């Protein structure tokens, strides 16, 4: 079986260089793609397809996606569509990819200014998580992934939610973080197993994402891109506020969430004149059918 590698470039240069040397020894063809969300598009997808073809990939080849959420999303989509589908595995190197993007089978790209507009459900053959990658991340990328863990905590037990709120980002204990990652992955896997194609309970995993994706789309449109997890964190606050108004989501838990997000993520930099544009992005969200689709609790 021939292995192909979709490589991430947003790790420290020395770290990437060391990995490159190891892969040369394995004589594994390598595809380099940019890691930022601006590269999650048709142009990059076409590049991966072309490289797979030029390097002789067949329907029996295996694509290894080594990188963050952008790499696993796009790489999974490329594998799922190349020659009507080849197998792939994910090796997530960011917290976001470990707890969200690389698990659950969602693949895709951004299109026409909208987040993840084109894609398919196609689970990886395997997801290999090495918590040592977390030590290579800066605080902003750790927090970006942690937003998805907060989401999992909100739909899980009270005890898990509290331990997430207590985690100290000023004095990071990677053993504790590794344990929290394991719990977060299990929460998502349990839900995905019940509803792999998002027709019921899996919609709970969209908490924060209708508004969050609108924030991301607005940021891309204004050429001030933001990290996915930051958009999700701000989206969670908005959607929990809707939940408090519509379904009576507990005020104390809403306050806990607001304080945590404000302390660690700040506030979304936008003004009142952009409300209408945000609403337009939400109307075009892929989850929207006849009306806006927002996860309420």
From TrEMBL:
Residues 33-142 form the 3-dehydroquinate synthase N-terminal domain. It holds the Pfam family DHQ_synthase. Its EC number is 4.2.3.4. Coiled coil: none annotated. Its cofactor is NAD(+). InterPro entries: Dehydroquinate_synthase, DHQS/DOIS_N, DHQS_C. GO terms for biological process: amino acid biosynthetic process; aromatic amino acid family biosynthetic process. It comes from the Bacteria. GO terms for molecular function: 3-dehydroquinate synthase activity. Residues 145-288 form the 3-dehydroquinate synthase C-terminal domain. Keywords: Amino-acid biosynthesis, Aromatic amino acid biosynthesis, Lyase, NAD. This is 3-dehydroquinate synthase. It comes from Phocaeicola vulgatus.
């Amino acid at each position: 079986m021939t292995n192909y590698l979709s490589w991430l470039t947003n790790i420290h240069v020395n770290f990437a260089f060391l990995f490159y040397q190891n892969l040369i020894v394995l004589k594994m063809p390598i595809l380099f793609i940019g890691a930022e969300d601006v590269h999650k598009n048709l142009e990059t997808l076409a590049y991966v397809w072309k490289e797979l073809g030029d390097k002789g990939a067949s329907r029996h080849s295996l694509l290894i996606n080594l990188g963050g959420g952008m790499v696993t999303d796009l790489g999974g989509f490329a594998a799922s569509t190349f020659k009507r589908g080849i197998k792939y595995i994910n090796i997530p190197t960011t917290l976001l990819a470990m707890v969200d993007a690389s698990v659950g089978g969602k693949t895709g790209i951004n299109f026409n200014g909208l987040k993840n507009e084109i894609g398919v459900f196609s689970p990886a053959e395997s997801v290999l998580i090495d918590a040592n990658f977390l030590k290579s991340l800066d605080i902003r990328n750790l927090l970006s992934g942690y937003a998805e863990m907060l989401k999992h905590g909100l739909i899980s037990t009270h005890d898990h939610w509290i331990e997430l709120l207590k985690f100290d980002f000023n004095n990071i204990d990677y053993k504790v973080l590794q344990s929290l990652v394991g719990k977060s992955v299990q929460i998502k896997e349990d839900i995905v197993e019940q509803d792999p194609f998002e027709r019921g309970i899996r919609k709970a995993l969209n908490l924060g994402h209708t508004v969050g994706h609108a924030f991301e789309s607005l940021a891309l449109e204004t050429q001030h891109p933001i990290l996915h997890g930051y958009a999700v964190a701000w989206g969670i606050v908005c959607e929990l506020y809707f939940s408090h108004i519509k379904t009576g989501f507990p005020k104390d838990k809403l306050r806990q969430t607001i304080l945590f997000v404000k302390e660690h993520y700040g506030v979304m930099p936008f003004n009142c004149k952009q409300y209408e544009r945000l609403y337009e992005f939400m109307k075009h969200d892929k989850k929207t059918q006849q009306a806006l689709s927002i996860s309420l609790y």
